[in-house]
């Protein structure tokens, strides 16, 4: 049970770090009417999402305990398969609406990243939208050809990179953190993962942790994500004191 609990904590760290780089979240933040409206919206969303996720998680555990869930991602639907056509249809419509809502946010985020970050503002909004649409067939192809475990590892790899760089980026809001220190800290994040692997096993294990940050049961490895987060933050602070920015 502790392994599953630690994996859950690892996912909290990983997803939180990754969401800090999501343009969709920052678009909602800057579009809010005021700080008070943003605060109320955040608490309301958390209050609605937390019990829903908890209930769905419990239902998934119930389905697994009954031995009926051959596909873990569809555990909830195993429980309602005898509930009637109308109820199942309602849940299907709800699931499609939720997916469309998430896809809409992701597409807006990708457009913003392409038009502002990747092209440094040189690409027009219409061109960024066309580029985003052009990438959709690739995403659909990968979603239909890659098995669920591989998709999970791809997400964990991206989340690990986010965990390794989120602390240096956010620490730049502190006036004592220098740009050189933040850059060194971002590089030190993945190196901290390698160091953790070398300390617990060998260097090759540490390198493998970067691309496969999972434990022997295929679950997210908490220590790997924590080492990336703590290592990058510590090196950022130390590097900033050693190499402060020059004052003009």
Automatic annotation (TrEMBL):
GO terms for cellular component: plasma membrane. It comes from the Archaea. The keyword Signal does not apply. The chain crosses the membrane at residues 41-64, 76-99, 154-174, 181-199, 219-243. InterPro entries: Na/Glc_symporter_sf, Sodium:Solute_Symporter. One of its GO terms (molecular function) is spermidine transmembrane transporter activity. Keywords: Membrane, Transmembrane, Transmembrane helix. PANTHER family: AGR155CP, SODIUM/PROLINE SYMPORTER-RELATED. This is Na+/proline symporter. The lineage of its organism: Archaea, Methanobacteriati, Methanobacteriota, environmental samples.
């Amino acid at each position: 049970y502790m392994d599953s609990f630690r994996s859950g904590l690892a996912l909290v760290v990983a997803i939180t770090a990754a969401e800090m780089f999501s343009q969709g979240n920052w678009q909602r933040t800057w579009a809010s009417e005021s700080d008070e409206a943003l605060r109320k919206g955040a608490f309301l969303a958390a209050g609605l999402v937390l019990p829903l996720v908890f209930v769905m998680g419990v239902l998934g555990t119930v389905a697994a305990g009954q031995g009926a869930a051959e596909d873990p991602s569809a555990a909830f639907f195993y429980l309602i398969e005898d509930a009637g056509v109308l109820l199942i249809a309602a849940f299907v419509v709800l699931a499609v609406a939720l997916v469309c809502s998430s896809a809409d946010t992701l597409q807006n985020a990708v457009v913003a990243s392409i038009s502002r970050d990747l092209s440094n503002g040189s690409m027009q909004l219409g061109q960024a939208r066309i580029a985003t649409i052009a990438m959709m067939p690739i995403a659909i192809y990968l979603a239909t050809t890659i098995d669920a475990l591989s998709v999970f590892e791809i997400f964990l790899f991206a989340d690990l990179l986010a965990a390794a760089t989120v602390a240096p980026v956010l620490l730049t809001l502190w006036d004592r953190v220098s740009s050189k220190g933040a850059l060194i800290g971002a590089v030190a994040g993945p190196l901290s993962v390698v160091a953790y692997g070398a300390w617990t096993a060998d260097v090759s294990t540490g390198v493998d942790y970067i691309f496969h940050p999972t434990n022997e049961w295929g679950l997210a490895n908490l220590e790997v994500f924590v080492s990336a987060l703590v290592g990058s933050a510590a090196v950022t602070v130390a590097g900033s004191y050693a190499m402060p920015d020059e004052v003009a």
